[in-house]
Write a structure and sequence with these properties.
It comes from Exiguobacterium sp. (strain ATCC BAA-1283 / AT1b). This protein is of the alpha/beta class. The protein has 19 helices and 23 strands. Helix 1 crosses helix 3 and helix 9 packs parallel to helix 10. The protein is globular, with a radius of gyration of 27 Å.
Amino acid sequence: MIIYNEPKYMFVEHILEKEISYILSKNIEEKMNRRVSASEMISWENSLSEMMRVIRGESIPDDVNILLEFNLPSTQKRIDFIIAGKDKDGQKNAIIIELKQWTKADLADGDGIVQTAFYGRTQSTVHPSYQALSYRRYLENYLESVDPIESDITLDSCAYLHNYIRSRKHENEPLLNDRYSHYYKEAPIYFKMDDLHLADYVTKRVGAGQGSEIASEIETGKLRPSKKLVETLNLMFEGNEEFILLDEQKVAYEQILTIYTEHVLHRDEKHVVLIKGGPGTGKSVIGLNALKALMNEQALVEYITPNAAFREVLRKKLARQKSMIEIRDMFKGSGSYVDTQMNKIDVLVCDEAHRLKNHGHMQRKIEGENQATQIIRSAKMSVFFIDDEQMISKKDIGSYSLIKEEANKQNAIIHELTLDSQFRCGGSGNYIEWINRFFNNEEEIELDGSYDIQVLDSPQQLIDEVVSKRDGRVTAGYAWSWTKERLNGQLVADVQIPEHDFAMPWNDSKRLDWAIHQDGREQIGCIHTVQGLEMTYAGVIIGPDLGYDPQSRQLIVRREEFKDSGARPAKPKKNEVDALERLVKNTYRTLMTRGMKGCYVYCCNPELQKYFKQRIAFTSNEYENVTREV
């Protein structure tokens, strides 16, 4: 969707007559049903006036076309400025220009990441050249009219920081640091005194004008994955043993493809596939294989994960050493479909659907809608992978029953599948049943020994056995407060167990890939970082929020020890069951099913520590010995 598409002479007139912000805000309200803030209007007036000065000269003809606030298909992102026209050789060209009002930036950790001031405080964000290049790649990957293999339109991209005075020495300018060279060489960056250089850059590409037809092709282009993107994705899967389908995984995968090819592709029908599966049943493997196969069918398909950390690890596992910019836009957060039109996307695959919310952080709340509503509305076919036992916050609304209800409201044809076989936890269905019985206070069963589960006597021993010896990661329940800001540049050691002289920090909130990054060895992961992921060995610290009463023989959830205020439900009324009990138990159930080969545990509550050992030792002789010790 394009908010504004006019020839240069009209754009200049709208600027000079001070009408541009009014026209843009009016168009957005009409096309997107969204009101524009005063600060956004001021931003348009400032940046677009600077662009008018760049392109006003005679070297850039009046019949180039200007496209403003181009909404990237199936996203909430908008491209600031596109100029379309032909070069002197008759080649059709369009240039994406990312406009920034920054005055200063600094280096930051992470690929393509910088720091600059937003709303009065310094924050991390992407480098302007990365942003311009990523928008270009996104259009090349999904918009047929600019497909670099099949289209006759060539896209370029650059960034213009019209308020930013760069350092005189190239090597002293943070935005031109060598770590960003891959991006600014492909998408040049222009500063306050570079308006003539930017004008030359534009003139070389669109100096022969005739932009109307090119702009129309961009505005009306069909959405579909490019051949290059499909080939790139196929290469990423090639030889990757993590994505091989086994048994019922293969059955579920084939059913997804059959529903698409036989019912969705050539019919005006809406379909919803509900796939129920516990931890380790291969939900993500099925979903990622379906993503690849559907793209090979030329379907416009996107992969949704509500958990940002899980999304980042999936991207990196899939991309390996390849450029992240090529595949990252296939993976979306669950709040990406607020404004998406009905059936705009062919297929949406939603992993970890139990983590869906009513609405996301900084996301518009629409009466009568939640994220499940928006996903089902936006796609001809939606695939949801669900495990109600992994709902760990009061904000989690994506239960099996709710998503089914939302599908019925939209008159979707519903398909229901269940996954039972265990492909994590050493393939041990016995261990999964043991875990479920433990947290449900049900009669114990004997462990068959196929999975390595142990209770260790100190958190230091846990770190040594899991991290040092087995290169796993240690997680904990949210029973300690979390200091988000660093102290003297270091993470604060919030997870403290004084009786063992133990203190470690929570995982770095800026490192979404904590579970696979080396820094994670010296940090404690939380449920929001690790959910959906797996590791060879998992260590779990069960905090003081969960205990055991030997008199009643019941697990006890201690509300006062649970520190995640955003996830904590309200206190129950008299004679009501505390909803927090289920959330805390689900948290530890989830943490204890992350390990493929084993899970080692330390419990802060002594009675729970003893009880845990008893349950693990439930074999006649060993059980009697442990019972005597207790």
